Amino acid sequence: MAPPKRALIAVTSAHAPLYADGKETGLFITEALHPFNVFKQAGFDVDLVSETGSYQPDWLSEQKDWLNDEDRRVWEDHSSEFRSKLDHLYSPRDIDASKYGLFFASAGHASLIDYPDAKGLQSIALDMYAHGGIVSAVCHGGAIFPGIVDPQTHKSIIAGKKVTGFTTKGEEEEGVLDTIKGWNRPTIEAAAASAGATYIAPPGPWDAFAYTDGRIVTGANPASAHVTAKEAVKAFGGL
Predict the structure, then answer these.
(1) Whether 78 is catalytic
(2) Is 140 one of the catalytic residues?
(3) Residue pair 116/144 in contact by the 8 Å Cβ criterion
(4) CA angle 91, 93, 96 (to 5 degrees)
(5) Is a pLDDT exceeding 90 seen at residue 210?
(6) Residue 139 catalytic?
(7) Which of 8, 133, 136, 154 is the most buried (most CB within 10 A)?
(8) Of residues 193, 225, 187, 188, the one with CA closest to residue 209
(9) What is its EC number (predicted)?
């Protein structure tokens, strides 16, 4: 039997200074909004969840270069379905994983902080994967993968798989690599290697790029959120 046509978008609940003047990273808005739109258009019911049931937006993701007029209209409208679900986020204890067939880890640099230890989100993703669902992530969302460990193999579900995610070169270009090291967190490339996966780089750090390996679907950066969600829907359709 095919998994339920319901998608669950994970959101980081962490926030920390990253940008000039102490401005903070958190949820990169379009990395949740664009997949939300794709899944809804494909006929999925969509819910949002974070490890603590709370979130904070990433400062950069609210700026004009990263949030176009249409996206901003949805983001600022608290009665829109997307913003309403963000304003009333689920936490893992609210979620019955058996009712979902697609897990999508949205991101923002803040996900490097909480996703590695997000046992609730990891458990949900593992349950969905074990029951034949799709597990996907974009940008820094891949930080969740090393902790999604198959109890039978004692390895991450991405062990032996090919995945993409935000490049270390991109971290260097943004000038935030030292900050990440200060958090005592690995880059996405390092996290993939530690989980036994092969990292596939996008053509350039900011180019839209997604990669599918079986039931694992990953994307490289904010520009990839839409295409990654489309690929996840395609993978779901192939189940």
Answers:
(1) no
(2) yes
(3) yes
(4) 105
(5) yes
(6) yes
(7) 136
(8) 225
(9) 4.2.1.130
Please answer whether residues 139 and 224 qualify as being in contact, where contact means their C-beta atoms are separated by less than 8 angstroms. yes
Given 171, 189, 226, 231, which residue is catalytic?
171
According to DSSP H, which parts of the chain are helical? 29-41, 69-76, 81-87, 111-114, 119-130, 168-174, 177-182, 188-194, 225-237
Q: Who's near 137: CB < 8 A, 6+ residues apart?
A: 104, 105, 107, 144, 145, 165, 217, 218, 219, 228
The token pair that represents 142 in the structure block = 């891949």
Q: How far is CA 61 from CA 26, 158, 167, 176, in A?
A: 9, 28, 18, 16
The rounded mean pLDDT for the chain is 97
Q: What is the pLDDT of residues 52-80, one digit of tens each?
A: 999 999 999 999 999 999 999 999 999 99
Token pair 């939300």 in the structure block, residue: 36
Q: What are phi and psi of 236, to 5 degrees?
A: -60, -40
Pairs from 59-68 (Cβ < 8 Å, separation ≥ 24) = 59/18, 59/19, 59/23, 59/24, 59/25, 59/26, 60/19, 60/23, 60/25, 60/28, 61/27, 61/28, 61/29, 61/30, 61/31, 61/108, 61/222, 62/29, 66/28, 66/29, 66/30, 66/222, 67/29, 67/30
40 token code pair: 């809804």
| φ, ψ dihedrals at 187, nearest 5° | -70, 170
Do the beta carbons of residue 24 and residue 218 sit within 8 Å?
Answer: no
pTM: 0.98
Determine which one of 34, 139, 189, 231 is catalytic.
Answer: 139
Query: Whole-angstrom Cα distance, residue 19 to residue 63?
Result: 12
Paired tokens of 185: 């967190």
Which candidate in 15, 34, 140, 226 is catalytic? Answer: 140
Both tokens of 172, joined, read 């260097």
**Residue 139 near residue 31, CB atoms below 8 Å:** yes
